[in-house]
Amino acid sequence: MKTKMIKTLIMVLSMRIVNNIKTLYAMIVMLGAVGCAPQTEFEVATWHGFKQCAISYTMEDSYDNQFTTALPIFYEHDYPCTFFVTTRWCDRTKWDALRVATTERGCEVGSHTVDHAVYDTLSKERQKQDILDANARINVKLPMYKCNTFAYTDCVVGDTSIISKHYFAARGCHGYVERATPNDYLNISSIMCGSNEAVRTLDDFIYAFNTARSSGGWCIFSLYDLDDGKGYSPLSSTVLSESLDYLKQQEKSNSFWVTTFKNAAKYSKERDRAKIEFPKEEIKKDGMSKVKDNDRLIISLEDGLDDDIYDYPLTLRCPLPFGWKDVEVLQNEVVIKSEIKTINGCKYIIFDAVPNGNKKIYLINLG
Fold first, then answer.
1. Which domains does the chain carry?
2. Would 84 disulfide with which of 52, 60, 93, 365, CB 3.0-4.6 Å?
3. Residue 316: which H helix or E strand, with range?
4. What pLDDT, on a 0 to 100 scale, did the predictor assign at position 38?
5. Per residue in 188-202, pLDDT tens?
6. What is the pTM of this model?
7. Is 53 helix (H, G, I), strand (E, B) or coil?
8. pLDDT for 367
9. Is 213 in contact with 53 (CB distance < 8 Å)?
10. What stretch of H or E contains 58?
11. Which of 33, 119, 4, 17 is nearest to 347 (CA)?
12. By three-state DSSP, how is residue 221 classified?
């Protein structure tokens, strides 16, 4: 009798030990490593590449020096910029420069009216016509480019019910670093630069950079003429170049995402609307359907926005699942760039993906 009871007790204890081991293993798989977040916990970066803030240089009024002096400085530093063009003030040479800037150097062209009209002096009908005329001119001169951002003349906001039908973001000039999520995408703050404005020196730029970095916000500069130009508030080209030198020197710190006005606005909207789901379906690519469930993650990234406009990739990361050593990431069956990075002792998969629910994202364990 005692022998039977002892055997029963040993069996019960053994089952409990096995169950505890299974539970522990499941916890390890879920956590990936001690202290790490669950493997299915995806994080969307506040700014692209998990940079701490965004920086955008914008120029308006189409002054000659923007093309002959400023643009080569941006090229030299390999940073994009935004031109808010006054279309009637652009000649053939300027349009040719803009064509190269947009197709080869990642720059942006937005509208700044046909002839610098201040919209609160125009009727709604005239505002609408000016928008249509400016966009038509841009589309003719830059047929491969879609203009969908705007900058107000003299910082005077027009009728936003009209603006919103043609542009998804518009720049004002309130003089402060914008939040990561602007209160109003049709009146986004910028900081005016040059001899007549607050930002004139390298120290002024650095102060604005650091304000953006500490707040996690979006710093947008408004530039006009340069050097000895006769236009409004010329900025020293030396100071402009020094400000970009400073940003280059800070690249290893992962602090500043230098990008166009359009891209930052897209990213901000997409990020705030991003929704990640885990659909249960097979990978349809040849051979990939044979991948075991524990060797893949399938996610859907959606933002509910118009995919024809909002097409900028968001940066995501998630803890590397337990047992995974190398990973391949695909979206719409196309391999996308990814990296495995150790952060605070935990390994993460980091990659960029465009939010589009119809283009599933697959993370495959390569062993």
1. 33-47+274-365 (2.60.40), 53-253 (3.20.20.370)
2. 60
3. strand 314-319
4. 60
5. 999 999 999 999 999
6. 0.88
7. strand
8. 78
9. yes
10. strand 53-60
11. 33
12. strand
